Fold this protein.
Amino acid sequence: MILKNPLTRAAAWTLAPVAAAGLALGVPAIAQTSNTLASVQAHLKSTSSMTADFTQTDRNGQRLTGKLTLKRPGKIRFQYQKGVPLLIVGDGSSLTMIDYEVKQVQRWPVKNSPLGALLDPDRDLSKYAKVLPTGNDGVLSVEVKDPKRPEYGTITMVFIRDGASPGGVRLRGWVALDSQNNRTRIDLANQKFNVTVADSLFKWTDPRPKQRGRAG
């Protein structure tokens, strides 16, 4: 399947630099609930790996699905459904977006990506995040943004209290909003924690002719 809708491709790439590079910055926490952030931090520290099915929804409601694999510190893979020529891989130092249809590759430091908080279990959430009210004690919502750098957008992570998950909470997904108000939502399901994950999953084939044979 070719991605005929450019917004769908753009939504996939929102996972990388656009929404909340502030995750790597010292954004002050505002009106946060310390015990809620502590629960989220405990979950991150207790999770060495995770696999999950994901559904990505763009602002027009168009959806893509795939498999998410995470291994801390720094490693993540978004493998899209069959026929979608996109791949997102974090190898521990860089987060790389590969578009096999147009043979395009872009790369950012993991620490500067919106996924930085998820990939670094030692990052202190209290320095740059705030808790949003949800009206439900079983749902935790944590927002990260840098008001001084609006071009970075906002990322909001949603966790559900779950005694069977590490730290007593489970990542349900997140919403990324860029500076043009393009909204991308990631929903997770069938999460499995602290499973064996091979490092080979975080290698990729470079589609650029001059770079062929080099893996990121």
Notes: The chain has a mean pLDDT of 78. The longest strand covers residues 183-193. The chain is about 10% helix and 40% strand.
